[in-house]
Fold this protein.
Amino acid sequence: MTEPTREQESTTAKDQSSPKRGAIQSGDKVRQMFDRIVPRYDLMNRVMTGGRDVAWRNIVARQAASRGDDVLDIATGTGDLAFAIRQAGAARVTGTDFSGEMIDAAKRKAPKHGPDVTFAIADALNLPFDDGSFDACTVAFGLRNMVDYDAALREMFRVLRPDGMAIVLEMTPFRRPILGPPFRLYFEKVVPLVGGVLSGDITAYRYLPSSVESFPPAHELAEMMQDAGFDDVTYQLLGFGTVAIHSGVHPA
Ligand SMILES: C[S@@+](CC[C@H](N)C(=O)[O-])C[C@H]1O[C@@H](n2cnc3c(N)ncnc32)[C@H](O)[C@@H]1O
């Protein structure tokens, strides 16, 4: 991908909607899938996005680090966002994921980034932290893979301090008329093929487009964040509208 287009959009409060389960029926299957694809996971991210994923995580990292010293990155995978947040100036960053293989990979990368980024295995739907423990809580390309989006947003809300910020970086269903067909061809045919060859796991990279298709569009995700209790929910679209960064603030 080349330079992203950016649109800053604000949302208005809407009626409470019914809880959104994730598209994923089994957390165990997702965990096993991510356990399997760890060895080529970072490489595949770079290839799929033409390296833009690094820039997107850096935007999130700067936002998160600006909120205070303690940041939690859930569904951290191999830890790239957690490392970027530390690099952006947060004093202490904790990365959690329910895949033991992902956490092991993150820990292998950690020595390069100093002692202030720590990792632990934890389910994002039941985080092992007290209420109000963090100044920011981030999730990158993780929410879409969870069995219950609303429950995950409520957990993010719970562990944040008043005035803390939740930031969600996620792929968003792509509905643009002209760019839609070529993007679909790329995402539904090329990505599974290349992902299958590089990772040896075509199922995982077939699952990717279907998980995005089932994920709520950006304006709906913003409403879900409001329903979880967040104020000042805004989002920006990046990557020609294929990716969204949402943020919301825990009321003081
Ligand atoms: C696509 S990867 C994203 C990893 C990383 N955040 C990144 O930016 O590359 C999705 C991650 O979400 C994790 N995940 C999915 N559901 C989870 C849950 N309920 N609790 C914790 N981690 C979860 C998976 O194990 C996987 O590592």
